[in-house]
Amino acid sequence: MATLIKPENLVYQRPEAFTEFPTHYCPGCTHGVAHRLIAEVLDEMKIIDRTIGVAPVGCSVFAYNYFDCDFVEAAHGRAPAMATGIKRVLPDRVVFTYQGDGDLASIGMAEIMHAAGRGENITVIFINNAIYGMTSGQMAPTSLPGMKTTSSPLGRDVEIHGYPLRMSEILANLDGAGYIARRSLHDPKNIRMAKKAIRIAFETQVRGLGFAMVELLSTCPTNWGITPLESLTWLEEHMIPAYPLGDYKVAPGVAEIK
pTM of the prediction? Predict the structure, then answer.
């Protein structure tokens, strides 16, 4: 009796927006998850051919190797300024920045604040792992109180170092912001929700509705000094209470995006 061969179900394939360049990220780092979500959205929206990415200094500095679209590298913190220039000169292009917390919330604070305040029609993907990743784990503007880093070995002391900056809450207060959301990359449910937010952020730009930013809570097991599995639990138990998930600004036109 002939054996019936059932067709296979395709459950994974490389997004067309990706190149075949091998990743440089540490094991357990969720930068790769964020990259895949962006690539899937670019594919689904069919905008990869007119997309320009901006990667500043930090762990994201090699992002141009991974996405099959035009990419430029900005000085540390200056990605929103560069994205502003590109979008104004080439308004038909889809322009996005990919930034870490030290980049966006420290040296680049002026750029992100004014880009949002002006309502620049760009999309920002903000990776918040509460630490400087590429430069050996120093305290970032988003490091939690008591969090030990290479520059705060006794833990972040709010009386000395101040309190963490909640960028989604800050930017949501600016009139120029069209869509501001915070999601997490620690489990499948939240990853799916993160992808939807990224899609809305790009749709916000395509429809000319102004500045959009998605903050993604991410892991850094290497600099946190724990295993990749432990880092997912640590994010859920420590970062989410400090950085609540949700939509912080949804302008009227953005609310109509499905």
Answer: 0.94
What's the distance, CA 89 to chain centroid?
Answer: 24
Q: Which residue did the predictor score with more confidence, 155 or 7?
A: 155
Write the CATH number for 74: 3.40.50.970
Model pLDDT for residues 17-74, shown as the tens digit of each residue? 999 998 889 999 999 999 999 999 999 999 999 999 999 988 888 888 999 999 999 9
End-to-end Cα distance, the chain: 51
Answer yes or no: is 24 within a domain: no
Grouping H, G, I as helix, E, B as strand and the rest as coil, residue 151 is coil
Residues in the chain: 258
- Give me the torsion for CA of 41, 173, 105, 34, rounded to 10°: -20
Query: Does any domain span residue 4?
Result: no
Using DSSP's 3-state secondary structure scheme, residue 177 falls into strand
Is the residue at 221 inside a domain?
yes
Number of domains into which the chain is organized: 1
Which two tokens mark 185?
């990359």
Cα Rg for the chain, rounded, in angstroms?
Answer: 18
Which ranges constitute the DSSP H helices of 46-132?
79-89, 101-102, 109-118
> Residue 95 domain-assigned?
yes
- Bridge partners (DSSP) listed for residue 213: 124, 180
Torsion sign over Cα 211, 217, 220, 223: positive
What is the number of helices (H) and of strands (E) in the chain? 10, 7
Give the domain range for residue 120.
31-256
